[in-house]
């Protein structure tokens, strides 16, 4: 009930406008968001890198409504890729297609994202033999209205060649949500092309016609898909804060003798820092997803939906 309520709130334009402009809202958002500027994001990246973890940087924003906004979003990602390369940071970027104008003009979104993937493919970066260190663009997965188009996009980008003839393969990746019934088929198809996948449970409200509703079913599918990914020999991201999913992944990797550098765990900025640290201490790879920017409201509300207890935690800290 509460999850559905927060997901519904995350779509309210009125509350969003109010929250994003208010000082209290901005203060609360800092629990999960690194700040508003590129400099804030880079400072957070350096701090996370110092802890022995890699980063994926996400400039918050989704469902832009004009070509100009889409172009500005892409421009910011160009700056991010340049700053990561210049600072030799252990980081890549994550973006949403609706932030690149998918709802406005699909051809424009294709042109913008393809420009970013071409830039990543042209960048060597330190240790670029290691897939974790190569410049890379992750295309986040949004609600089910976008699933097919997003996967088609990633497949097309992965097969593409940049202007300088550099292959995009390995420089762009997809996200799969274990709550969707279709995900097993999608994983098979992506693996046939050796496309890098981030596996997560899924953050949107989806109906029973297309998605598991029970946590136990979502989790069982997560474990099934995780095994497919780990056995594939492609470098994937296992994105979860759920200790049960993490234990299942570690047990499977050990049983199948899959080395710790063959995949990475991924977690969100500000969530389960203790677990992030302890996994790194045990020798596993960890990438922290760092969101930043002024448009933090929908992302922030989806995080509250995952754990409504966070609301009390945030309020307590606010009045402390
Ligand atoms: P689950 O929700 O079952 O939580 C397990 C435990 O984790 C909880 O008991 C709690 O201890 C902890 N936890 C989880 N969420 C928390 C929170 N907000 N605050 C505090 N503790 C929390 N989704 C999507 O649809 N598209 C995408 O592209 C992405 N991308 C993405 C990247 C990365 C790096 C991560 C980690 C997650 C995503 N997600 C996502 C979100 C994902 O689908 C999912 O909603 C959340 O990760 C929560 O699911 P868990 O696997 O953590 O388990």
Task: Describe the fold and architecture.
The protein is α/β, with parallel strands linked by helices and about 325 residues long. The protein has a single domain (about 35-295), classed as TIM Barrel (Alpha-Beta Barrel). The chain has 13 helices and 8 strands. The chain has helices at about 1-10, 15-20, 25-30, 40-50, 65-85, 105-120, 145-160, 185-190, 215-230, 245-255, 275-280, 295-305, 310-320, and strands at about 55-60, 90-95, 135-140, 170-175, 195-200, 235-240, 265-270, 285-290. It has an 8-stranded parallel β-barrel, surrounded by 7 helices. Helix 6 links the parallel strand 2 and strand 3 (about 135-140). Helix 1 (about 1-10) packs antiparallel against helix 12 (about 295-305) and helix 2 (about 15-20) packs across helix 3 (about 25-30). The relative contact order is 0.16. The model has no long low-confidence stretch (mean pLDDT about 90). The chain binds dihydroflavine-adenine dinucleotide. Dihydroflavine-adenine dinucleotide binds near residues 202 and 272. Dihydroflavine-adenine dinucleotide binds near residues 141, 239 and 271.
How does the SSE layout of this entry go?
Elements: H1 2-9, H2 13-21, H3 23-29, H4 38-50, E1 54-59, H5 67-86, E2 91-95, H6 106-122, E3 137-139, H7 147-159, E4 172-177, H8 183-192, E5 196-200, H9 215-231, E6 236-239, H10 243-255, E7 263-268, H11 273-281, E8 286-292, H12 297-306, H13 309-318
Parallel strand pairs: 1-2, 1-8, 2-3, 3-4, 4-5, 5-6, 6-7, 7-8
The structure holds dihydroflavine-adenine dinucleotide (FDA).
